[in-house]
Amino acid sequence: MRVLVLGSGAREHAMVWALAQSPSVETLYAAPGNPGMAASATLLDLGLSDLEAVADAATEHGVDLTVVGPEAPLADGIGDVFASRGLRVFGPVAAAAELEASKVFAKEFCLRHGIPTAAAETVATADEARRAAEGFGYPVVLKADGLAAGKGVLIVTSPAELEEALDELFVARRFGSASDRVLVEECLVGTEVSFMVISDGARWEAFATSHDYKRVGDGDTGPNTGGMGSHSPAFALSDELRREVVATVIEPTIAGMAAEGREYRGILYAGLMLTADGPRVLEFNCRLGDPETQSVLRRLDGDLAEIFSDAADGHLTPGAMRWIDEPAACVVLAAEGYPESPRVGDEITGVDRAESRPGVTVFHAGTRVDGSSLLTSGGRVLSVTAIGDDLVDAVQRAYEAAGDIVFAGAHRRSDIGADTLKQR
Q1: pLDDT 10s digits, 215-226
Q2: Residue span of the structural domain in which 230 resides
């Protein structure tokens, strides 16, 4: 197959890395890609907002399968555009992608189909949000309805923090039209895990479980980010809990979407809180998580291109998703000022040295090349991943490799995996 991967982040780099090892892949393209992907794929200079131009490029290059990494093109309807032109695409159509594109839709969908989730109210003004927050008490969660690059969730613990959040959402409009509606939601307590499956519209296969770290600081402090690290598997998800998640979340979601005329083909990501009362849905995503993907795909033992292609065609092969036993860990290196206002343009050194370590792979995100120099170009710069004999070993290898990489203002969490290891 000739395969095109859309996106430019570390998630997409991990997908390119895995697809490059697929026996069924002859040629790889990435658009717009990043410097790390250039080692495995031909980069195409395409903007993902022009869906017809992307479809034109897929046709021009004889692409057999286009894999959509980020959420925005899916919400915009790239699945529909490709289908109308007879092009094979891995990713849900716009009607199905609304599970991520609208948190209000996802919440109402859960209520319609009896899928366990947090109690919430939908509001459209600061006054309505204030009243709803007072009803739930602190801490309370505010979520912008639309897409906000993974940063539209605000957890507030006091009236003062609530006013700051309301200013961001309704006055400063930090998230733009994504906050035209806002969910005010009870704050669930427990362990957060990610459960991702691939669906062909009726059948599904599970990815290896993973646990990610959203807050910027150690001990889950500071603002939410797109993700500062991850590990796979998520040991908190026992076989019994996994069966409960499948029965109460995954299967009702796939069946419910089909019943509503929104057949779901692609990645279904359920962000879950494991509470004392059982698993509860925090969010749905219609694509692989970042940085969970960086850990999960390091453990894949199978032909990813064939799996994606089968799902796109509506006939997944049972048991196609296989995983090695060794755990994987991912440490994100972020730029100074991330997540609020990351600084860019700093030179990066040490990536080659990090990747020379056994079991280590570095996935690029916010990087660009200027002459012979690698520079920072975004908030999350690199995802340093490692496979280990056990989780302790994987985490240690990832941190040792992360220590090899240097750029001004670099910061990272120092406690990826610590909570899991303490519990175990």
Answers
A1: 999 999 998 898
A2: 189-313
